[in-house]
Write a structure and sequence with these properties.
The protein is about 25% helix and about 40% strand. The protein is α+β, with helices and mostly antiparallel strands. Strands 1, 2, 3, 4, 5 and 6 form a six-stranded antiparallel beta sheet that branches. The protein starts with a helix and ends with a strand.
């Protein structure tokens, strides 16, 4: 019985700390245009994070192929700029956008919460989708 309880607790901790890939979109611009007289379609923000052993070995990371679905990848390094740009491009096509403007990316590593044993890597990318 004690072993089953420990297994449930371990699985709950893994589920609560697993990697995640998310995308958010904002569409309300009114009649505002951008530089170059392009009409904005949407602003898209993509974030992917995961946990790494000593900042090197990926343990649990988000799945950029399935954004906004609570899915994770085990032992795969999916927290990359390429993965974020794939999520941004996927949503730009879905919104019938022709161009990306003002693309910005932030990468952050944090390991102090676990005495630098387990590191959390986050990549955030935002872009403006225009016609």
């Amino acid at each position: 019985m004690k072993k089953a309880s420990l297994t449930v607790v371990a699985l709950a901790l893994i589920w609560m700390t697993s990697g995640c890939a998310t995308v958010q979109i904002a569409k309300n611009f009114g009649d505002v245009t951008t530089d170059g007289a392009s009409k904005p379609v949407a602003t898209v923000a993509a974030e992917n994070y995961g946990y790494y052993l000593f900042g090197v070995i990926p343990l649990i990371t988000g799945a950029p192929a399935y954004p906004n679905a609570y899915m994770c990848c085990l032992l795969q390094d999916t927290v990359t700029l390429q993965g974020n740009m794939a999520m941004v491009s996927q949503y730009a096509k879905a919104e019938h956008g022709k161009k990306l403007a003002s693309v910005k990316t932030i990468e952050d590593w944090t390991g102090s919460f676990s005495f630098w044993i387990i590191w959390r890597k986050i990549i955030f990318t935002s872009a403006l989708i225009t016609e």
